[in-house]
Design brief:
It is built from 11 helices and 5 strands. The chain is mostly helical and 222 residues long. The strands form 2 sheets. Strands 4-3-5 form a 3-stranded antiparallel β-sheet, with no helix packed on it. Strands 1-2 form a two-stranded antiparallel ribbon. Helix 7 runs antiparallel to helix 10. The chain is flat and about 75 Å long.
Length: 222
C-alpha cells in the first residue's frame, strides 16, 4: 500500500499541468507575429533605444562582455590589394554603393603603422580582390578599447583573434595586420556615415531636419 501511494503521488506530480507547461515552454513553436501590432509594440518600433537593445547579443573580443550588436563594431578580414596580407577592417569601411572598391581605397590610405603608402607604385601593380571572412569579430564601439588593441604585442593580439580565423586556410593568422590609427579611422568612418544619413533624411519630403550648409548657417540660426 505504501509503495502504491508513493507511485500515485509521483504520477500526480508528473501529470501536473504547470510542470508540463514548464517542460514544454521552449519546445512549442512561437506563434506568428500579428499583422496588427499592439499600441505598446508600435511605441517600441518608434523608440530608438528599444530598437538598439533588441539587436542580437554578441560577445566583445576585447572585454569579453556580451552586449547588443548595436553597441559593437563588426570587424572582418580583407586581403591587401598590394601585399595580399590579411588586414582586420571594420565593416563600416565597406560602402554599400561602392562595394569592394571602397575597401581597396581604404587599404591604400595607410599601412599598418599609419604611414602613407606610395599610391603611384600600388596603381601599377595588379590589385588582388579583397576576400572577406564569412564570420566577423565584434569589438565594443569605444575609442579607448580600440586604441588599446593598437598597443598590444603579438601574443596578446593573437589571443584576441577568433579561433575560426586561425583555422581559415585563406589567411595566416600571424600575418594579420591591425592599423595603428584604427581608433581615429573608425571615428572618421562613423562621422561620415552619420553625415550621409543626415543628408539623406534632410532630402526626404517629410523630413524632420533641413539641410542648410555651412554657407547658410548664420542666416538660419534663431
Amino acid at each position: 500500500m505504501e509503495h502504491s501511494s508513493v507511485g500515485a503521488r509521483s504520477a500526480r506530480i508528473l501529470a501536473n499541468p504547470e510542470l508540463l507547461a514548464a517542460r514544454n515552454r521552449y519546445k512549442i513553436p512561437k506563434p506568428e507575429p500579428s499583422s496588427q501590432p499592439s499600441a505598446f509594440q508600435q511605441k517600441l518600433q518608434k523608440n530608438p533605444f528599444a530598437q538598439a537593445l533588441a539587436t542580437p547579443v554578441r560577445q566583445c573580443a576585447v572585454t569579453g562582455s556580451r552586449l547588443p550588436n548595436f553597441f559593437l563594431l563588426d570587424f572582418g578580414l580583407v586581403s591587401h590589394p598590394r601585399t595580399g596580407k590579411p588586414w582586420q577592417m571594420p565593416k563600416l569601411a565597406v560602402d554599400s554603393n561602392a562595394g569592394s572598391s571602397s575597401v581597396v581605397s581604404n587599404l591604400k590610405r595607410t599601412d599598418g603603422n599609419g604611414a602613407l603608402n606610395n599610391a603611384a607604385s600600388e596603381a601599377t601593380e595588379s590589385p588582388k580582390r579583397p576576400v572577406r571572412t564569412a564570420a566577423g569579430s565584434h569589438i565594443i564601439a569605444q575609442q579607448s578599447a580600440i586604441s588599446l588593441i593598437s598597443t598590444l604585442k603579438h601574443k596578446p593580439f593573437m589571443q584576441m583573434l577568433p579561433h575560426r580565423w586561425k583555422l581559415d586556410p585563406r589567411f595566416k593568422a600571424d600575418q594579420i595586420v591591425w592599423r595603428k590609427d584604427m581608433d581615429t579611422f573608425v571615428l572618421d568612418l562613423m562621422r561620415r556615415k552619420t553625415a550621409t544619413l543626415l543628408k539623406y533624411l534632410s532630402s526626404q519630403p517629410a523630413a524632420y531636419i533641413r539641410y542648410c550648409g555651412w554657407a547658410n548657417l548664420k542666416t538660419t540660426r534663431p
